[in-house]
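U., I forgot to send this yesterday:
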Amino acid sequence: MFILITSFVVGIFCQNTNYANTNWNKVQGLPSMNATLENYEQLLWLVNISIGVPAQNFSVQVDTGSNILWVPYSVCSNCDINTRYNPSGQSYFKPNGSNYYQAYGSGECSGYVASDIVNIQNTVINTTFTMMFATMEQGFSFPTIMDGIMGISNNQSFTNIFQASFKAGQIKTELYGLVFNQPPLNSYLIFGQINPSLMNQVQWVTPNDIYRWKLFINKFTINGQDYSSQMGSVTSAILDSGTADLIVTEALYGILLKTYLIPAGCIQSGSLYCPCQPTAQELQYLPNITVSFNVVDVTIPFFNLLQNYYVAPQGQQCQVMLTYTSGPPFMVFGDPALLSIIPIFNKTANQIGIIGGVANGIPNGDYPGNEEIDEA
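Result:
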């Protein structure tokens, strides 16, 4: 039996409009193939898991930009997270004798590699899985909110939880996807037997990197104006659920700020802030960004860049989740982009399925970048 969770239709993105007409909140699938995500202020997307027998519970951030699942170990001399895994009395805990280090844009951790039973709570996934138990973690922004991170990147050197569950015969495919919504709508991690009515809407795109979910950008427009030349040599973007911002080039950020955001009444005071409930005059300036990912055009409505605008009273300023890159040779399309589409990931086939985009007629194919070294 399938469940149907309330729906809106994706709107016409070329017009400035309200979020309710420009985003998804429709999921169809078997109940056991959906895990509800907690949306923490549009900054973290958390899923509940348990590790071990007897089970120990953790709430971990879902991160398409990193490689490994980790939680803090019981013996952790430099850990800010209080929830720890205790191996005492665990029936299936098995260290493999190696260590691992993982760095993020904000935060880092290292520890022992071991396997144990991992369950995504209230789903069929309950499989032996290799992960890291951190003996050091520091620099994370929300150590009291999250208990660890579940990395589900495209790194072909690592097996993710869905591949392990598929090999164990618990799910029929190793596909997984993200349905991000702003409250009061629920958000979901979907996997395995995804409903055909949803899969029939997928447009498949080939990443140009064997380590990250990174896509070549053919074209970058703002409110219909082509600014592709302002990308410079940065012609790709990664889809990263572990990043709360949309991170573009410095040149594109300058254009967005001076041509669109400041005329719309936005201010820059440390971070960038815009009216949560803009007037009709301000709306005409606010930018909707459209990028061509190989064969698919994806539009990011401006309201998906505003943190918590849906609960803000008239006259209040909301933080704009937008910044620029001066480091990696790619842009980072974090949560504002993922609020605008439903991505379906097929790691073995090295493909991303995009639901919510528009076919643009550009031929699909491989692009430069497959030789890059993993820095996730």
